[in-house]
Amino acid sequence: MEKKRPLLLLSNDDGVMAKGLNVLIDILRPLGDIVVMAPDGGRSGCACGVTVSQPIHYQLISEEPGVAIYKCTGMPVDCVKLAMHAVLDRTPDVVVSGINHGDNSSINVHYSGTMGVVIEGCLSGIPAVGFSLCDHHHDASFEPLRSYIFDIVKNVIEKGLPAEVCLNVNFPVADPIKGIKVCQQAKGYWNQEFDPCPRKFDDKYFWLAGSFINTDASNDKNDRTALDNGYATITPVKVDVTAYEAIEQIEAWFI
Amino acid sequence: MEKKRPLLLLSNDDGVMAKGLNVLIDILRPLGDIVVMAPDGGRSGCACGVTVSQPIHYQLISEEPGVAIYKCTGMPVDCVKLAMHAVLDRTPDVVVSGINHGDNSSINVHYSGTMGVVIEGCLSGIPAVGFSLCDHHHDASFEPLRSYIFDIVKNVIEKGLPAEVCLNVNFPVADPIKGIKVCQQAKGYWNQEFDPCPRKFDDKYFWLAGSFINTDASNDKNDRTALDNGYATITPVKVDVTAYEAIEQIEAWFI
Fold first, then answer.
1. What is the third-level CATH fold of A7-185+219-242?
2. pTM
């Protein structure tokens, strides 16, 4: 029996029209058959959110040999679930998310819809990787990323990933990029997180804002620091978030 | 100088009117001063989502000695950020979320807005705990949970938690509850995840649905199994999700 070409399921959180997604399709086309299920508009910062209070609708928007593109009214995690349950006739070989317009390193992994796609793929037992560029502009240049993304996805398809582990890949705004570092999630926090935007008679309106403080900046295994130094970063992420080392300490409360 | 009473910041994802939140206020009132910042309506399944595409508005809705209640237009994570940056005059001693109407054990930690509150508290360096009851009805009975919740929050305030670790506490529908087990995140997945809800001329509408399959059910350290056996579960959760043990394997791709 003929071996099927690899099946790549793509999604993102910037929506089906985003440049980053369309560049990603173009980069990965030689690696297999591509099915895209992406939100019909921007869903930035929606993390692993799912749509529970209304139905989700999807629609095929274009199809040519090797690439089918669907959009839906859901969030990034919904896209993965919906594609696997309603559209695909076999399990994808890899789930790929992005290319996000904006940084998802460090603790941003928790807020990221790009990484929502990846975590959902991983929870479904499929090797999964998300790509983000530290430039949120809609016309950001993704050219320096091409060979990196192709090589990483090729490796993921051919070598797989450890069980319950997925990849969070981030790129600096640099040309050329200095190379790749496999990193750990930077420690840090967001400060001064709101900008006031008062409305007549009411000063209780705010925009989420702020800047990220890297509290471990001297550690070059830290993804945020490596990005600052001009490197692409791969941070392996686990979906079993149990703090095993804390179990005994909490158990002692009840003895 | 007089020692201040502990400050407890409360939120949830079922909204400020939910019974679970109001029972939580009642249980925790003896432990300190309570400030609630909760969404103005349901936000189930919104994970660590943040509101980036519109401003957030908040409003004080009631105030009496020891308990101030605010609502806002944001998501659970926004509630924590907004309270800390715009409302509170000191850092809370503990962030408490819930009581959620519905199960947040196992992989549901990734989708849960209840745990979004907790993860945000933990990322801010504050001890944080989320409570959920495996009953999604709006009039669920929370009575058997009272002494457990009081004791757990008292322990968290007095003893603290390890750095970068927070707690995901779930309760079975049982009276009496058999006791507490400190657990690990159950392994499993959701299957048959969509129910069709066709609209005239269009069958591409679906409700997110499905049932959870516990793939490690014989392991009684697994939170879902312990709940099935009638125990309350405490699953310690880490916010550094780096898969440290995978770094070397991924690095080998590039040598």
1. Stationary-phase Survival Protein Sure Homolog; Chain: A, (3.40.1210)
2. 0.97
